[in-house]
Design brief:
Blueprint: H1 7-13, H2 17-37, H3 48-62, H4 71-80, H5 86-104, E1 107-109, E2 115-117, H6 123-129, H7 150-174
Antiparallel strand pairs: 1-2
Helix pairs in contact: 1-2, 2-4, 2-5, 2-7, 4-5, 6-7
Amino acid sequence: MGLSKESSFFELREQTDRSVAIVGVSWLDGLFEACLSLYLRQPDTGEMDTDKATEKALDEVFNAEGPLGSFSAKCKMAYLLNIIGPKTFKDLKIINDIRRQFAHYAKTEAPNREMEPLSFLAVSISDKTNNLRSRTTRRVMVKKRPDDSPAAIAFMSAIDAIAIGLRSHVSMIEEGKEPAPLP
């Protein structure tokens, strides 16, 4: 999904609750890969064999079965490299847990004991979003989707805040500056 400042966020806001959770984490996953890649050897030696070996190693590290293939593994590595701090790390665990629920359970039991599509209104989801501490202050968050619950806003706001922090981290490193970790 790249490092686009706005397009991915606006795409996210046009999705169903399930898509918001899955696509939002996918967006962060791409940003974490871009950020973590800056700390790894890059294929820029000019020697074809060395560059190909480096490209292959990077591909293997980030592919689905590689050591940094999962979103969870990328979050842990970012934490251990001090790219993110404890608050953001805790939020990412919550965000990933919510994503996992949406990815694996399409329906949930409603108060009337009937099954209904899983949404941010489900108690099992909204209770988790109450614990998210990362929040964006961008004015764009004021414009809600028609059906947005406070839980949906909290989730999207946390995704946006973390994405802004990761893009800033990448920009600072590319400018040769020492970035501070996200909280």
